[in-house]
Amino acid sequence: MNERRLFLMGAVLLTLVAMCGCDRATDGRLEARTIVGVEAKGLEFTGDYERALQQAKEESKPILVYFTAANCVFSREMNETTLSDPKVIELANRFICVQIDVNSREGGRICDQLGIVGSPTIQFLAPSGTPLQRLPQKHAASELLFQMQAVLYSLAWHETQVR
Q: How far apart are CA 79 and CA 44, in angstroms?
């Protein structure tokens, strides 16, 4: 009886891990890559993380990094709802937006560098590249808008304190 219970608990755990949408490479490390896979409709993403960092510095804009996976049902739902919301799209114009596919190799160091372990995840960065707020998991447009506004407010406040 205990073996059956242990087996069922293991099966449930594996199902929950699979549902998060973040794949692991065969060597156990998280794989990631810049864009391709699942694209969010409406939002304009760059596919080059390093270029986004440079552009953010040049334009003094914060960065919205969207970690996603083509096999992640929650990423697809977020693309269809949250990231397609007209208010999110409008406010996103004040950010440099980058989409990272967590199933590819190139972004592995990005996930490692930022401590990203699942998708969907949105990580905000200051124009300098310093990590700010993080939104793991799927969120409604209203929640994302609130966090985007908080990032912009925080950066504006910081700028007034530095001057």
A: 12
Token pair 């269809």: residue? 80
Whole-angstrom Cα distance, residue 76 to residue 83?
10
DSSP at 82: G
Determine the Cα–Cα distance for residues 56 and 98; give it in Å rounded to an integer: 11
Contact 122, 40 (CB under 8 A): no
Q: Which residues pair with 8 in a beta bridge?
A: none
pLDDT per position as a tens digit, 141-158: 999 999 999 999 988 876
Taking the model in full, what pTM does it have? 0.73
Supply 144's token pair.
């994302």
- Whether omega for the bond prior to residue 131 falls within 30 degrees of 0, making it cis, is no
SS3 sequence of 129-152: CCEEEEEECCCCHHHHHHHHHHHH
Amino acid at 136: P
Residues 13-37 pLDDT 10s: 434 433 444 443 333 333 333 333 4
User: What is the C-alpha radius of gyration for the chain, rounded to an integer number of angstroms?
Assistant: 17
